[in-house]
Each structure stands twice: as C-alpha cells, then as structure tokens.
Amino acid sequence: MNPAATWSRYRRYLATPPEVVVEWHDRLTPARGWLVVNSLRGGAAGGGTRMRVGVDREEVVYLAKAMELKFAFSGPAIGGGKSGIDFDSRDSRRLDVLGRWFRAMRPWVSQCYGTGGDLNVDEQRDLGPIFQELGLPHPQIGILAGHFRADPEQAHHALSCLRVGLGLPLAGTAYGVGSLPLTVSDMITGWAVARATRRLLGGELKGVRVTVEGFGNVGGSAALYLARSGARIVAISDAEHILVEEPGLEAPDVEALLARRRRGRLPEHASRRPAERRQLVYRTATDCVVPAAVSGSLTGPRLDALAAAGARWIVCGANQPFRESALGDTLTQEGADARFTVLPDVVGSMGMARAFEHLMRGGPHNTPDDVFEAVGAAVDDAVDEVVAHAGSGGAGLMAATLDLALDRIASSGPEARESAPEC
C-alpha cells in the first residue's frame, strides 16, 4: 500500500457529502439534533445516539462516516449512521427530548436506520422504553428491515436474540464486578478495547502503564479489564475530574471506583482532582493511551505531552478522538500515526457493533461467554489483519486500517443486502 495515497483517499471519503442529513429543532427546549446517514449501503445504516452540549452537524457527519468504516470490520455490510443531540444530558428534561427526537425520526428508525446507546445515552434504560412507546420493537429494527429484509416473524426471532444476549447479567461471572447489576451491553465495548490492546501488545499487559480518557461504559470497563490483564492504570479522566495514580491502580481499585460511579463520573478518591488540572493526565508517565470519552480530545499539544511521557500505543475506544481543524483534515491523525502505534476506533471500539452482528444472526447467546468469545475472536482477527497489512506495506497502523476498510466499502457495492437471519 501507499500511505500517502491512502490518506488522500480517506480525505476524499470524508469530504464526500453524506446521502442524508436530517436537522431537527425541538419545540419545547433549545435542543437541536442531526441524523446523518452516510450511505444506505446494503439497504440500511447503523450508529448510536449521543447527547451532549456542543454536538454539531460536522461531528455527527464524521461519526457516521466512522461507523461505515467500522462495519467494514465488524459487519454487517451496511452504511454508517449517527444521531447527535445538542442538549445537556444532566437536564431533567433529557428523556422527554429523546422521546420527541425519536418520534420525529420514526420513519428512519423503523425502516433503514438502526441505533443504540452512545455518549450519555443508554440503550436499555433510555432507548428501550422510548421505542416501546413508539410501537417499535427495538432500536435495531431498521437494520433488520432494510438490510436483512426480515419479515415480522424473522425480526421477532432476531430481536429476541439481541435482547437476551445483550441483557445477560454479569454478576457472579468472570466479566462482572461483584453484585453490580451490569449486563453484556454495559461492558462489551470496553472489554473489546482491552482485548484489542492485549492482542496488539502481543498478549502480555503485566506492568504496562495505561492512561484512560473517560469513565463511562467504555472507559470504565476498558480500565477494569486492562487492570485484570495486569496493566497498571496510571491516570483516568472524565468531564469533571481527573485521577492520577503514578504507581498504578490495580483491578480491585478499579472495581471499587466502578462500584461508586454515577453516570460515568469518577467517584470521590484521595487522588481525584478537578478537571482544571487535566494537563496532568497527559504528562503522567505512561505506555498506552485509551481515549474513550468525547470526540476530538487528542490535540496536537496533548499528543506532544503524551509522547514526552513515554506513550507508545494509542488504542481508540472513542470515535474519532483526534481533533482536526475541520471535517476532511487529517493532519493530527497522520502525525499521530507517525509517532505512535495507533489502533483506530474502527477496530478498537468495534465490540458492540460485532455483538449486534453476532446476535442478529442468531449466534450462541445462552451465556456471557458465548457473546464475549464471539466478539473476542473477531477483534483478534481484525487486529492481526491490520498489523499484517501495516507490516507488509510499510505504513502506520492507522493508515493500514483505513486502507483495508476503504477497500471493503468499495468492493461491497451499494445493494449487498442479505437474507433474514435465523435465530
């Protein structure tokens, strides 16, 4: 492969307008939102719904494009989509806003767009009741209708697999945290980030220092499973606080934090500091960085600080953690790819997308092991493939990953629909 040609092709991909952009303005609050469907490749598109102050059209467009690249590895062979709502997720009216958003988006989510949880939106606790009110069986029904062309009975079977598999309780299993009421859905993405990290580093994490951005479903679970694999968590940040512990948090320490976590925020801890001291996170000696918070968190100066702190690997749990000046720019990403070994989000955070693919096809789902092992095998294969492609082409890992994803999108064609899955 030619890395320069790959980056040029990626910029053209980013600059190509998405097929559909729907802009929404709430009548009762200042909330506004965007549904972006980059393409209806395979008859459908998929991507989660996020809510935060400051979400804008450009961010949602980028995230929809990132989802399309992610599906190139996780499956199914569909287009990328994303929903973004510019509203304070701490506002008591958030569920009412979400409900009005999905009532407006009903034609899309019922026919060709499947969604799920994302930043500040939980699929089971938030979206489940809203879709029930709308008379829709599941947030993924649009993919079953548009891509798999499932009839009502087939859709019922596939959605039953999804509900059971993602709702499996983890308490008392190797994946759980004591008696916390966690499910596969809560932990699978962060677990896959940790799995990808372990695979990328050759299967051994003992003593590896890790910095984690974010302490929600992705960041919190990634920190947990990395620590259980022997890594030392030296720094964690969320929207309001940081926690720096240079000797490193071990698994019991992370479990204790998770047990007291509320809405993705770090609980009280002797080493917790206000977010105004966030620069300490990037200056703390580390080997591996896991951005698992908002998009655009990794700026040029922060990457400089991380390089000076000893970071060698970046495994992306967040979608597009690199801050660029505008959609279509790749300067920060190219710089990171030249200085670090970067596993991008299209592989690093494919856990939930792969779980959806596995379960919608009626894959084994009687125990958490069934789902985690299926996702883990796919993650291992993807990491091995992009590492081999980078090695053979003399390219950075991010460029190699994008090269493979863009090839797959180009080769699948727009109408590559599939028969309905059996469950």
Integer average pLDDT: 95
Number of helices: 17
Q: What is the end-to-end distance?
A: 40 Å
**What is the total number of structural domains?**
2
Instruction: Tell me roughly what share of residues is in helical segments.
Output: 40-55%
- Total strands: the figure is 13
CA-atom Rg in angstroms: 20 Å
* CATH superfamily label of the largest domain: NAD(P)-binding Rossmann-like Domain
Question: Explain this structure to me?
Answer:
The protein is α/β, with parallel strands linked by helices and 423 residues long. It folds into two domains: 18-149, 3-Layer(aba) Sandwich (Rossmann fold); 184-390, 3-Layer(aba) Sandwich (Rossmann fold), CATH 3.40.50.720. Helix content is 47%, strand content 14%. The chain has helices at residues 3-15, 57-74, 94-104, 106-111, 123-133, 141-146, 152-166, 184-200, 217-228, 251-260, 279-283, 300-308, 331-339, 345-348, 351-360, 368-393, 397-412, and strands at 20-25, 32-37, 45-46, 49-52, 79-86, 113-114, 209-213, 232-237, 241-249, 272-274, 288-291, 313-315, 341-343. The strands form two sheets. It has a seven-stranded mixed beta sheet, with helices on both faces.
